[in-house]
Amino acid sequence: MSRKVKLLIAFPLLLIVVAAASAWYFQTALERLSAFVPDKLEVYSLREGMVERQVVSDLAGRDFMPVVISLWVKLHPEFRGIQKGDYHIDGQRTLPEILGLMVRGDVIKERFPQLVIPEGMALPRVRERLLGMKGVSEARLAALDKPREFMERVLKKDGLLEAIGGAHDSLEGLLMPATYPLPKAETDPLRPLRQALYEMADFMAISWPQRDEGLPLEGPYEALILASLVERETPVAEELPEIAGVFYNRLQKKMRLQTDPAVMYGVSPTFRGPLLRSHLRADTPYNTYTREGLTPTPICMPGRKAILAVLHPNSTEALYFVAKGPNPLEGHAFSKTNEEHVRAAKAYRQRVKEAREAKQREQEGKDQQDSKAEAEENDLLDAEEELKGKERPRDSKPTGKQDGKATGKRDGKPAGKQG
């Protein structure tokens, strides 16, 4: 066979081999290109005017020839229309997934400091949290020392001031519990408080007009006062409407509310106990054992569920409640009469005693400390039951706030939902 013939036979075979090798290379390269993109220490900024081919080239690095990148882009028209912005390349996503983010414009959201206001937090604690943030000082929070002016500036323009009953001398109870970002903490630390106040007013503007008829409340501010008392009584959301119903019943029967969280607030807004007999007897504007009606202001920031419970309470005959056990999540036992309440309180004491005894068995060496705590607890309960035993329903008109103003009746019917 002549050399010319051999070349004629070999050349097509060579082309086939080259074509096969090229096909294998491109197929392998395209598959590799669609795999995970290595993480980048710096944020990837997609600037105005950049196209898909340039972005793929940036992300793929130097491992791929330009022709492979061009081919990959042509095979994926769904990634046209990528949006500018900053993107995080964390090494956990494939190239198609990253380009998908860019098409949707899922840019990095800067991680700002946050102000968290949980349900039941008192105003001084909120202020403490703000002061604990970088660049925030007392001087930067000076506007809070003039709460009326602060409320008017935030709410008057949109007509929301009356939604919280007008301007007041304290922001207590007027900030909606939530998590608020502080993108400008160092330049505008009051921004989350303005937002929280606005959220509360906006919520009340919608919720207050939809309240049950006949509630013995003079306005939305009294609803927030009562909601704060209900909020601090239980962490069990299902109980909130029942506790609200109990409080309404006691208000209508001119019985003192006798709620421990209010007494504690009167000792100090940041007071956490232990609550003693002497605290129950020390008269303050917030002592609901010595004064009738509602407290002069809210005692914490009530959440939406507590507010709605006050605006739509359970229709109940209960006048008393006491914790079922040492764990607050167990809830409360509700009673119609003082006799039933005394039995429930006795059962609670027994549960507390059993829990303490179990703890003593596990942790030796704390006997003396636990005995003192039990004595203080029993002393407090004795004082409460002594006072409650003297408190009886009266036929006189119910009162609202503790300044003596009446709150009115619920059409002569027991507190709770009507009909």
Description:
The chain is mostly helical and 419 residues long. Helix 6 crosses helix 7. The chain has helices at residues 3-33, 52-60, 66-75, 95-104, 123-131, 147-155, 191-207, 220-233, 240-252, 260-267, 277-281, 304-311, 338-362, 367-390, and strands spanning 44-46, 85-87, 114-117, 178-181, 320-323, 332-335. It has two domains: 26-104, no CATH class; 123-390, no CATH class.
Name some characteristics of this structure.
single chain, 419 residues, mainly alpha, 2 domains, two-stranded antiparallel ribbon, 6 strands, 46% helix, disordered C terminus
Give a short overview.
The chain is mostly helical and 419 residues long. The chain has helices at residues 3-33, 52-60, 66-75, 95-104, 123-131, 147-155, 191-207, 220-233, 240-252, 260-267, 277-281, 304-311, 338-362, 367-390, and strands at 44-46, 85-87, 114-117, 178-181, 320-323, 332-335.
What gap, in angstroms, lies between the N and C termini? 111 Å
Q: Could you say which structural class the secondary elements and strand pairing correspond to? A: mainly alpha
Low-pLDDT segments, ≥5 res: 403-419
By DSSP (H or I, 4+ residues per run), the number of helices equals 14
The largest beta-sheet arranges its strands as: 1-2
Helical content, roughly? 40-55%
* Biggest β-sheet strands, sense, barrel: 2 strands, antiparallel
For the record, the count of structural domains works out to: 2
Shape, per Cα inertia axes: elongated
Strand and helix order: HEHHEHEHHEHHHHHHEEHH
Strand content: 5-15%
Q: Mean pLDDT across all residues, rounded? A: 83
Number of strands: 6
Q: What does the oligomeric state look like here? A: single chain
Report the C-alpha radius of gyration, rounded.
34 Å
